[in-house]
């Protein structure tokens, strides 16, 4: 009985130890589970923190990149605006300079035109005064009085003198040089205009025709036996009588013929390729229509003074 009780006690002790051991193992397993969950939670927390940190870093990097790009864009915009302002300022300066130069050129042109007009006016007035003085001298030489000369210069109408009966001249007095007109041959279909004789009782005054030497040669005058004198102006000649238009044309044509014969061939001396022989250059004859001459106004005035009527 005592042995059975001992065996039961031993059996209960073993069961108790086994149970305690199992509980201990269960507790250990629970503890291990708890530790595993905590470790996983810590790991998850760590991973979350790493992810959050990485995200923050990426956001910071993106923010920095965005700021850098915005800064570059703003800098590019500012640089573009600055270049545009410089370009506009440069263009405005260039435009202002061109406008200033154009205005200065216009002012210079206006001043040059004013100077030219003033110079031309002064030259024209000087030539007019010279012409008036020369005409006055010519009219005075022709025997007109000062009153008649002033009337002619002012282009006033001259009253014709009333015819008077000639008074007998003393035997020792002589009349002035009368103008004798010898009719020249007239071309076909052209009528020679002869100045009318002076009124009765008046002494005929000598008539002169003033012609330019530009279209008249002395050889032509000598060829046709026309008497002449040299004018105070070397560019003009004084014919000792009235010259009608047809005779002027004949003298001009003869002068042109003489001058064309002289200038038919010109010798040009040039040294070409080591040659010293003279070359010849032919001159083409000028067209008559392109180089027409205008008649001088002086013969008409002198014809008027001589008493000729307009055609």
UniProtKB/TrEMBL annotation:
Superkingdom of source: Eukaryota
Pfam family, one: DUF8035
Record InterPro entries: DUF8035
Protein name per Swiss-Prot or TrEMBL: Reticulocyte-binding protein 2 like protein a
Composition bias type Basic and acidic residues, residue spans: 270-290
Region of interest called Disordered, as start-end residue ranges on this chain: 56-143, 270-300
Domain DUF8035: 206-260
């Amino acid at each position: 009985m005592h042995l059975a009780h001992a065996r039961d006690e031993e059996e209960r002790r073993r069961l108790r130890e086994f149970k305690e051991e199992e509980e201990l193992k269960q507790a250990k397993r629970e503890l291990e589970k708890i530790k595993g969950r905590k470790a996983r939670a810590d790991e998850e927390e760590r991973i979350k923190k790493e992810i959050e940190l990485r995200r923050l870093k990426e956001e910071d990097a993106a923010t920095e990149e965005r700021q850098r790009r915005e800064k570059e864009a703003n800098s590019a915009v500012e640089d573009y605006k600055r270049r545009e302002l410089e370009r506009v300022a440069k263009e405005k300066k260039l435009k202002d300079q061109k406008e200033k130069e154009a205005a200065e050129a216009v002012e210079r042109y206006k001043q040059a035109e004013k100077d030219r007009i003033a110079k031309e006016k002064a030259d024209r007035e000087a030539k007019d005064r010279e012409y008036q003085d020369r005409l006055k001298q010519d009219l005075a030489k022709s025997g007109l009085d000062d009153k008649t000369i002033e009337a002619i210069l002012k282009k006033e109408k001259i009253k014709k003198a009333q015819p008077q009966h000639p008074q007998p001249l003393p035997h020792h007095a002589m009349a002035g040089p009368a103008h004798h007109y010898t009719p020249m041959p007239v071309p076909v279909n052209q009528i020679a205009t002869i100045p009318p004789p002076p009124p009765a009782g008046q002494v005929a005054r000598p008539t002169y025709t003033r012609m330019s030497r530009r279209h008249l040669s002395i050889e032509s005058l000598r060829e046709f036996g026309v008497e002449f004198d040299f004018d105070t102006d070397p560019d003009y000649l004084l014919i000792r009588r009235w010259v009608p238009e047809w005779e002027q044309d004949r003298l001009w044509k003869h002068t042109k013929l003489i001058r064309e014969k002289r200038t038919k061939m010109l010798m040009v001396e040039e040294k070409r390729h080591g040659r010293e022989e003279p070359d010849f250059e032919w001159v083409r004859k000028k067209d008559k229509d392109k180089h027409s001459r205008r008649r001088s106004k002086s013969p008409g005035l002198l014809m008027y003074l001589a008493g000729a009527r307009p055609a």
